[in-house]
Amino acid sequence: MTTEIGRLAITLPAGFEGRAKHIGRLVGEHLADCALPAGRLAQLGVGPVRVDARRSDRAIAEHIAQSIRAAITQGVRS
After folding, report:
1. Residue 61, exposed/middle/buried by CB under 10 A (0-12, 13-18, 19+)?
2. In whole angstroms, what is the distance from residue 35 CA to residue 47 CA?
3. Contact 16, 23 (CB under 8 A)
4. Across the chain, which distance is largest between two alpha carbons, in Å?
5. What is this structure's pTM?
6. By 3-state DSSP, what share of the chain in percent is helix, strand and coil, each rounded to 5?
7. Sign of dihedral through CA atoms 56, 13, 33, 69?
8. pLDDT tens per residue across span 10-35
9. Which of 14, 25, 28, 56 has the least CB density, counted as fewest CB within 10 Å?
């Protein structure tokens, strides 16, 4: 079964303006590459997710994607 995310909105703290687009794209790629449980959620809130600005965009995106995946898994089970 395919998992579809209709809209993904990520708010990053000040200082990430130049990196936000790339991080957002990488989060989408990480989510596309992982197995998500089947189910339907009208809305899902995640966060805040603490990130270290010294980490790479890829590492930050992976951390955010892991938090989203965990919230989806928990939301589908509820």
Report:
1. buried
2. 21
3. yes
4. 38
5. 0.85
6. 45, 0, 55
7. positive
8. 888 899 999 999 999 999 999 888 88
9. 14
